[in-house]
Amino acid sequence: MAGTGSGDRITTIDDRKFAARRTRQPDKTSPDDDLNRSIIDMLQRDGRMAFSEIAQQLGVSEGTIRNRVSGMKRAGMLEIVAIVDPVVAAYKTAAMLGLKVAPGHSPQTVAERLAVSPDVVYILWVSGRFDLLIEVVTNDRDSFLDFLETDIHSQPDIAGSETMTGLKNFKNQFLLKRNWS
Predict the structure, then answer these.
(1) What's the CA gap between 64 and 62, in Å, rounded?
(2) pTM attached to this predicted model
(3) What are the per-10-residue average pLDDT scores of the chain (181 residues)?
């Protein structure tokens, strides 16, 4: 056996090689990994881009891209979804609601209650004058009014609400704000 030089611990050469190999390997699910940043950047521009095309542009194998994407998905770092602009998709009503949670209730429990509604597409716990900011998208005005009456105004866990309907969308960007380049 070969010593480590510290005098109090003895390891084999194989142990040292394994340790060195383990420390040299980057975390393949890390957002700080250059290859992952490049993959994410390309998928943000086109979530349907073929792994073969990404691999070719980045100079790596298609299997490497597949493995990296799978690893990032498993780690909860990456989710590939379609994002629809409600106006273009012909939904008739889209609104943001600022909600003030009633005393004795928590924003989390209100959010969990509202999250089951298919009309609620976004829930954010915020600071400031509201506790929750939610986005509601319905097929027509009557469905929206029904949602407000049933899920907001008649609920004891909501102390107050403010409904803000969109007039014009100037930007709809669901990308990470971090500069990946």
Answers:
(1) 5
(2) 0.54
(3) 49 57 54 84 88 95 93 86 60 84 97 95 95 91 93 97 85 54 43
